[in-house]
């Protein structure tokens, strides 16, 4: 089964799921009282809700109201503004903690509204990196798992969330649940239709994205897709508008920027990890991509981390 992208790239379901990345340190519990609820404005992240106890109404992220009860899990992929209430008609305020993406190790609990306890919800805000760098239009706006579809013990979830490292464990659990929910979605078979399409250039781009740190050469990529070197290079440039090696470099630089942001690896270690033998050569190429040196990029990330902003790091086209 293959998902065909606008640029001709296509993935099997397993390849697509292996390329999706979910990252988060923003998790919390929301205890909804009988008059309680919250809302989340339009966003570019994935919102995760697991109903641990009680019932609630989800509105705004689909064509109607979704009734949730204990054991249900919902993931909002569309970025649409939405609200979660213990009952329809309750007034809501933005849950700033979730909207702003506050970092935690152990999820805090927010009590919302007044009256009797109506629902307890585990909430997560997950940054997502989609294959190809953009949200696939064919992916459903909402994924849902009902108790009969998931193999998660909610008591285990609540115990996990009380220990150090909870945010990391919950994020990896969310990735597993994303995979299960997409596979169970009724549109999955249609999205990943059987396809006889075999575009060698699309496959080459796929190999680059799946394995960016392989010691690729134009000849090696050409052999991988069953073409001669010269014909492959000319066709790749014609269809993509860039050379194969510029695509390899750009993909590696995206990972380098992520390492600078998310790890404490030294620049020399990052250089070696992404396939450069010389730290100086890596730093020069990084500066061509992003307009700043690796060291300056890392300092910018650290300076802006506290207020939730991130410096622009869109890679330039490498010729």
Describe this structure in words.
With 319 residues, this protein is of the alpha+beta class. The protein folds into 2 domains: 13-190, Jelly Rolls (Sandwich), CATH 2.60.120.10; 200-307, Arc Repressor Mutant, subunit A, CATH 1.10.10. Helix content is 38%, strand content 23%. The protein has 12 helices and 12 strands. The chain has helices spanning 13-19, 96-100, 154-160, 166-184, 188-191, 200-210, 218-224, 229-240, 244-262, 267-273, 279-290, 294-304, and strands spanning 2-4, 10-12, 21-33, 37-40, 46-59, 66-69, 73-76, 82-85, 93-94, 109-112, 117-129, 142-145. Strands 3, 4, 5, 6, 7, 8, 9, 10, 11 and 12 form a 10-stranded mixed β-sheet that branches. A two-stranded antiparallel ribbon has the order 1-2. Helix 6 packs parallel to helix 9 (244-262) and helix 7 crosses helix 8 (229-240). The longest helix has 19 residues, at 166-184. The chain is globular and about 70 Å long. The model has no long low-confidence stretch (mean pLDDT 85).
List keywords for this structure.
globular; 23% strand; 319 residues; Jelly Rolls; 10-stranded mixed beta sheet; 12 helices
């Amino acid at each position: 089964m293959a998902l065909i992208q606008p640029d001709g790239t296509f993935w099997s379901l397993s390849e697509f799921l292996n390329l999706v990345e979910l990252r988060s340190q923003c998790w919390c519990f929301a205890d909804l009282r009988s008059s309680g609820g919250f809302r989340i404005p339009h966003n570019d992240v994935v919102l995760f809700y697991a109903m641990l106890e009680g019932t609630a109404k989800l509105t705004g992220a689909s064509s109607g109201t979704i009734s949730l009860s204990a054991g249900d899990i919902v993931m909002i992929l569309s970025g649409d503004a939405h609200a979660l209430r213990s009952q329809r008609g309750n007034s809501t305020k933005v849950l700033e903690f979730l909207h702003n993406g506050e970092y935690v190790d152990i999820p805090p609990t927010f009590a919302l509204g007044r009256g009797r306890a109506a629902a307890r919800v585990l909430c997560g805000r997950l940054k997502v990196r989609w294959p190809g760098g953009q949200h696939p239009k064919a992916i459903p706006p909402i994924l849902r798992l009902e108790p009969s579809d998931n193999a998660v013990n909610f008591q285990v979830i609540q115990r996990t969330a009380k220990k150090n490292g909870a945010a990391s464990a919950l994020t990896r659990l969310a990735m597993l649940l994303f995979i299960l929910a997409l596979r169970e979605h009724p549109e999955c078979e249609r999205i990943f239709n059987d396809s006889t399409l075999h575009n060698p250039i699309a496959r080459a781009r796929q190999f680059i994205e799946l394995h960016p740190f392989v010691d690729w050469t134009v000849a090696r990529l050409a052999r991988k897709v069953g073409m001669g070197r010269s014909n492959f290079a000319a066709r790749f440039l014609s269809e993509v508008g860039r050379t194969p090696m510029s695509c390899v470099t750009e993909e590696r630089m995206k990972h380098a920027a992520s390492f600078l942001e998310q790890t404490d690896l030294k620049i020399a270690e990052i250089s070696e990890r992404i396939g450069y033998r010389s730290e100086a050569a890596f730093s020069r190429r990084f500066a061509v991509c992003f307009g700043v040196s690796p060291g300056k990029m890392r300092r910018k990330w650290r300076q802006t981390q506290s207020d939730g902003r991130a410096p622009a790091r869109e890679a330039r086209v490498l010729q």
